[in-house]
Specification:
The chain is mainly β. The chain contains two helices and ten strands. The strands form three sheets. The protein has a five-stranded antiparallel sheet with strand order 8-7-6-9-10. Strands 4-3-5 form a three-stranded antiparallel sheet, with helices on one face. It has a two-stranded antiparallel sheet with strand order 1-2.
Length: 172
C-alpha cells in the first residue's frame, strides 16, 4: 500500500488497486509511464485493467516524455478547503500530452489533470499562474508525498516556445 500526504490531505493507494499502485510507484521514481496495449499499441490513461479501445487486458508500462499543451484550466481564488487557503490563487490544469496526440481520434488524446506547479513541485506562484493559459507548453514535475510515492504536477516548460499571449478567461 502506498501512503502519503499532500497539502495536509492523506493519500492512499490500496494494494488491490494494482494499476494505480504501479502508476504511482513509477511516479515515485520520477518517471512518467503509461500502459501501452499489447494488442493495439495505444497508450492509455488513467491506468485501467483493459484497453478502452480494443478490450485487451495485457499491457506494458512504457516511459513517455511528459510534455504537452495546456488544454483547459480552472483558476481558484476562494479556498473551499482550509488546506488551500495559504496557496491562493492556485490553478488546476488539463494537459494534453504530446505522446499519442490525435490518436485514436483527435478527441481521444491522452489528457492529465493536476495542479500547476513551480519546477520544484511547490504550487505555482501568482506570477506563474498569470503567465499560463490555454496553449501554454507544460512539462511534468513530481512531488514526493511518501516513501516511493509521488504525484505528477505540471509546470511551464521553459525549454519550449510559449505562445506570446496564451488564452485566459477574462478577469474582472
Amino acid at each position: 500500500m502506498l501512503q502519503g500526504e499532500y497539502l495536509g490531505f492523506r493519500l492512499e493507494v490500496a494494494e488491490i488497486d494494482f494499476e494505480n499502485e504501479a502508476f504511482f510507484e513509477w511516479c515515485g521514481k520520477h518517471e512518467l509511464r503509461l500502459q501501452r496495449c499489447d494488442a493495439c499499441g495505444l497508450l492509455r490513461y488513467p491506468p485501467t485493467t483493459a484497453c478502452p479501445w480494443c478490450g485487451e487486458p495485457e499491457s506494458t508500462w512504457e516511459p513517455v516524455e511528459g510534455k504537452g499543451t495546456l488544454h483547459s484550466y480552472a483558476e481558484v481564488h476562494h479556498a473551499i478547503l482550509p488546506q488551500f487557503r495559504d496557496h491562493l490563487p492556485y490553478m488546476m490544469v488539463l494537459v494534453e500530452l504530446d505522446s499519442q496526440r490525435d490518436q485514436p481520434t483527435p478527441d481521444e488524446a491522452i489528457r492529465f489533470t493536476g495542479d500547476l506547479a513551480e519546477p520544484d513541485g511547490s504550487l505555482a506562484s501568482a506570477e506563474t499562474i498569470r503567465r499560463a493559459g490555454i496553449g501554454s507548453r507544460l512539462r511534468v514535475v513530481f512531488k514526493d508525498v511518501g516513501d516511493g510515492f509521488a504525484i505528477p504536477l505540471w509546470t511551464l516548460d521553459e525549454s519550449a516556445a510559449q505562445p506570446p499571449q496564451p488564452w485566459r478567461y477574462p478577469q474582472e
